[in-house]
Write a structure and sequence with these properties.
Helix content is about 10%, strand content about 40%. The protein has an 8-stranded antiparallel sheet with strand order 5-6-7-8-18-14-13-11. Strand 5 and strand 6 form a beta hairpin. The longest helix is centred in the N-terminal third of the chain and has 13 residues.
Amino acid sequence: MQIRPGDYLLINDRVAVYIEDGGASDGYAPFGGEILAVDRVGEDGMPMGLSRYNETVVALSNEMVKPESVTVLADGSDGGEAVVRVVGRLAPIPIMDEALGVLFPRAYGLPVALDYVLAPSSPKLVLRLTLVNETDEPLNLTLDELHAFFQYSRLQMATPQEGYADPKGQVSHVEFDGGSWGFAWRSPAGPLHFALEQSGFALFNGPGFRVDACEVVTRDHAELIAGGPHLDGVRAAIRAVDGDDTWREVRGKVVDGDGTPVADAFVHQLGTDGSYLSRTKTGATGAFVLHAPPEQGKLVPQLAGYPTHEGTTLSAGESDVTLRFAPHGFVRVKASDPEDPRPLPVRVQVIPVVAPERLPASWGVDQERNDRLHQHFAVGGEVTLRVPPGDHRVVVSRGYEYEMVDTTVTVGAGDTVDVAAELVRSVDSAGWMCTDLHVHTFYSADSNDPLEHKVAGGAADGLDIMSTSDHEWVTDPGPAVTALGLTPWMAALSSLELTTFTWGHFGVVPIQQRTDLMNNGAIDWVGKKPGEVFDLVDALPEKPALVVNHPRNSGFGGYFSAAGYDRDTGKGREDLWSDNFDVLEVCNSSTFEENRKSTVADWFSFLERGRNVWAVGSSDNHHLVSGPVGFPRTCLYLGHDDPAKVDPMTVRDALLAGGAVISGGLFVTAQGPAGERPGQTVPSASGSVAFSVSVRAPSWISATTLETIVNGVTVRTDDLLPMGEGLGQAFLQTVEVPVDPGRERSWVVFHVTGEGSLDPVHPGKQPFGFTNPIFF
């Protein structure tokens, strides 16, 4: 959501709330008249720029007010409330109408006024609703009052009943912790009821109300209470609004085993019954402030790398406390490439021999998976990580073209153990550059990874081109690549995931960020059929490649599933089917074998009909904490390895020419008799064609089997034959493929697999690779 000239600012000495003017709007509700940002006001009387507010939709059925006017009803200059009024009629919210319309068949279309009301010195914004029932029938809105939140990507949701864990059933209110600043949302008429959460979208039902025939009803429909820092500050703001002064202020400090202040540590507050009461964080000096109830409770400091703390009892009336961690140590990693003096971006993982304790979901701590204590992306090749005393496995890696270092160290209290990680590049990929065309950042509603964090993850795992494909928002990773000093290692590419709510998701590669347009230039798909939307993509100046993402997903995410694509006919439902696309995401965080009977079979069906649709493999990564970007990855033949020479149009052209292979750890390429690469055609062939297949991998990845697939049928499976000696693995094989004289065109795809997994670098991922077709 972007603040633009013409929008409105409600401000007092505590909070600043930006209200959008009417007209086209960013985000998922396109009408305008919404809250854009909720900020704290500094001592100078100006907004402090702390807002992390995204979007909240206030709806009756699946309708919200579509503004006919947005005006200042009262400016507060008389010392009273300041009011911005939005006047219009209820209109269907396009995305909700597309996805959830069947659940809310009642259309109202009634006149509405929505007032945003801010009183002097109050942290509470009131949303006051006036509804005119023009009909001669009473309206019962008990089930139709909706409060929908797109806040996940920037703020953590909590409730008094469940803490940060998923809400259940009835809740008194909903809180959003943005760190420095956040807010709570509630209905003055009664509790909210949790309905569903999907892809960052959280939906609650309100208590509802009744409007008699020909009646005009005005009600305080919702309250937004701003506060901070952290959840503790939000809850303190709620109590202040409610006049509850029974809780006391507690000041304290968190220190380590030597008494040194600990910055950025969480302090969790638990009740005597173990219930989750609050959370805050320490500042640069280790100090913290939180609020506690009159009775006894417990405070638990927590920060990754420190020994688990059992908690300290906070006695009734106590207002000053020091929380002390047990002693700890450090692991210091310095990575280098003996043949390259530049700082080497690497992934560093620390795995305690004794698995770290998992924290309760109610605490809201995003913990590393697979028993990792740390998963750090050291873009400069060096990092010092805090660890509890004990034995720790340290894994240092750089994607699938380098050897790795895997060592176990013993760290004593107060010790710093050095790990010198010399990573040798053992896979030659000259002329090819690898990317992941399906990566989300916190510009997507269902990802909370900051852009720079995602870029660091891609660099540490060896991607050559960093692409971002956020839902309905065009994001440019270029500034983050530059800010992290990664331009010698990677190029940047802007793309988009065009995310319909009914018939599929699609990658648009490339697309230029246009900040003067809604959602930075994303494609408006609402109310349009696939053919119309695909034509809009074709009309872009970039002439992008259109990628069908996860074609066989359930629900509305998979185009082939939604459109009922039939491999036998090569078509889908008449009302939804268009084959005006170029590329299929054959592997979505998965292997060729896992998709053999689904998206691989779909891909082959197009090739068999003479339709050149090209394959890519992507991660669809939303959270680096739970998996990597770049598994699998798409490696494009560009004829060079220089990020400075990468141009979005050359990436597009390579995609559209089929000049790509897919790597899930194994880098496989193939050539015809005259050097024909994937996407190209052997000009004349009879009898048989000899293809040269090369497979390369570092020594820590298994490569065992080569499968040759001709015209969609496996014609041979061979053991890979090692070639030469060295740190990495290289396999070079000649495969004779017979020519069927009865076919006008044949094609061959080469698929390679290995045994085991990519552990310890990417636990649970299976090694594989395959080519796009070569025709003959």
